[in-house]
Structures are given as C-alpha cells and as structure tokens.
Amino acid sequence: MSDDPQAHLRRAMLQQLRDWQSAGVNVAPHGRVLEVSEELLSAEVPAAQAAVAAAPVEPPPPVEPPKHDTTVPPTSPEPSPSEPPTPVASGNPQQQLDQLAAEVAQCVKCEELACTRTQTVFGVGSPTARICFFGEAPGADEDKQGEPFVGRAGQLLTQIIEACTFKREEVYILNTLKCRPPGNRNPTPEENANCMPYFVRQLEIIQPEYIVCLGKFAAQNLLQSEAAIGRLRGQFHEYNGAKVIATYHPAYLLRNPAAKRDVWEDMKMMLRDMGIPIPGDKR
Ligand code: URA
C-alpha cells in the first residue's frame, strides 16, 4: 500500500462510494447521477473536490410522490354533506305537481311548523288552470283535511269562484305557506322565505294567465311589495307573464261583509279582461 496521501484519499473515496452504491444511493443531493467507476475514481482529483466527495453525505431526500392535480377530483370522493339535490320535475303538469307535492310533504325547513302540522297543504285544482287563487297559509280545517280553503273562508271563496262562472275544480287554489302556523299566527319572514320556492315552482308548472292574490300577505309576497292591499287592488300587476289581481282575503270579508262589493269589482275586472260575460252585468 502506498503512503501517497492522494492515493489514500482516492481509496477512501472509492470505498465510500461503493458503500453508498450498495446501499442503493446513486443520486446526488442535487440530482446529479454519481457514476461510480474505477476510471473516474482513479483519476487525479483536486484535493478540495475530493474532500467534498468524501464528506459524509446525507441520505437523499425521500422521493416525493407526484402531486395530485387539484383540479382532478379524487377517484372516490367523500359524499357531499350538502342537501340532497332537488329532483328535476318531469312529465305533464299534473305529474310535475305530484312530484313537487311529494317533495313538499317531506319538508322540514321550518322546524316548528314541521313539528306541529298534521300534514302539508299543497294545492288543489286544475294543473292547467287559467286562474290561480293564491292565499296565505292553511288554517285548522286545511291542516286537518290537507286541502286549501276548506273552512269558512274557503266556503266563501268557493262562492266567489262560482260567481265568476267557474267550478272549484277548474281553477287552482294554493297558499304562500304549505304548513299551518300554530294558532294561526302570522308567518315569519324566515318561514316565508323557506316556502317561497314551492309556490314559485307551482306557478311555473301551471302557468296561469291570472293570479288572484287573496289578502295582503299573498299580494305582498308575490309582488315583492310593501304596499297595502287597498293600494294594490283595482289594477293589474304582472308576475312572470301572468296578470295579477290583489283583493281582500275571504276571512276579512267574513268580518267586513261590506268589502265584498270591492272584491266583486276586482273579479269583474278580471272577467272582462278574460272576455267572459259577467252575470247580471248590464254594461
Ligand atoms: N286562509 C288561507 O289563506 N288559506 C287557506 O287555505 C285557508 C284560510
């Protein structure tokens, strides 16, 4: 063995590199491949370079797995915690209404109403009606029977409909709210907002030519207005291509029969516009 310090250094390097190679280390920390060859190692290596080469080398950093493209969803995504998708209605208007009614029957958006109702009260009548009568919310009778306007106010509404020469089955009757507020209290703004998508979809399916809003609550909701019913009545408004009439609620007429005259004027305005002869009208 030579005492030449350079030869000693080369041997040490060679041994070191063989050890790394047998341990599977063949990538330099900066990514350059170390080709361990006798030829290279036997060459003259400047002392400084040789010192660097012989220095203990940290094991290479663990190879990082390829980064996932974050725009590509994982192959088995976790189920989304969001609400179940609203089913898309299909079929004829009656089928679409039935589908929507089934959805409404499951609704629990308003905790108190969902807990206290007997059932939801969706709507009744012809799915292709020219006229929709649009009320506020079910009362005790409606909550029991599952049909809007079946109590005393409902009987008066039926008389109004018949005075207009229609049968109840020929028009469509619905409410802003599908559940009875306990004790017939006023609906809250939150209940109102929760239920609005249902009447919006009902009206989209039926596409009536006329919507008769019964009372302030229905009129203000549909027209997104804060005006009093006395200011809204007596003229046509517009909602998604339908002509809207705002008039007094039948329950108000039960307490104030003198207002029936105004309601009849509102109905005559609609009938004239529809081209329907008005019973007993001399004009
Ligand atoms: N009042 C309403 O507004 N709707 C009904 O269904 C019954 C009474």
TrEMBL record:
<dbReference type="InterPro" id="IPR051536">
    <property type="entry name" value="UDG_Type-4/5"/>
</dbReference>
<keyword id="KW-0227">DNA damage</keyword>
<keyword id="KW-0004">4Fe-4S</keyword>
<dbReference type="GO" id="GO:0004844">
    <property type="term" value="F:uracil DNA N-glycosylase activity"/>
</dbReference>
<dbReference type="Pfam" id="PF03167">
    <property type="entry name" value="UDG"/>
</dbReference>
<keyword id="KW-0378">Hydrolase</keyword>
<dbReference type="GO" id="GO:0046872">
    <property type="term" value="F:metal ion binding"/>
</dbReference>
<feature type="compositionally biased region" description="Pro residues">
    <location>
        <begin position="74"/>
        <end position="87"/>
    </location>
</feature>
<feature type="region of interest" description="Disordered">
    <location>
        <begin position="49"/>
        <end position="97"/>
    </location>
</feature>
<feature type="domain" description="Uracil-DNA glycosylase-like">
    <location>
        <begin position="122"/>
        <end position="268"/>
    </location>
</feature>
<comment type="similarity">
    <text>Belongs to the uracil-DNA glycosylase (UDG) superfamily. Type 4 (UDGa) family.</text>
</comment>
<protein>
    <recommendedName>
        <fullName>Type-4 uracil-DNA glycosylase</fullName>
        <ecNumber>3.2.2.27</ecNumber>
    </recommendedName>
</protein>
<keyword id="KW-0411">Iron-sulfur</keyword>
<dbReference type="GO" id="GO:0006281">
    <property type="term" value="P:DNA repair"/>
</dbReference>
<dbReference type="InterPro" id="IPR005273">
    <property type="entry name" value="Ura-DNA_glyco_family4"/>
</dbReference>
<keyword id="KW-0408">Iron</keyword>
<dbReference type="InterPro" id="IPR036895">
    <property type="entry name" value="Uracil-DNA_glycosylase-like_sf"/>
</dbReference>
<keyword id="KW-0479">Metal-binding</keyword>
<dbReference type="GO" id="GO:0051539">
    <property type="term" value="F:4 iron, 4 sulfur cluster binding"/>
</dbReference>
<dbReference type="InterPro" id="IPR005122">
    <property type="entry name" value="Uracil-DNA_glycosylase-like"/>
</dbReference>
<keyword id="KW-0234">DNA repair</keyword>
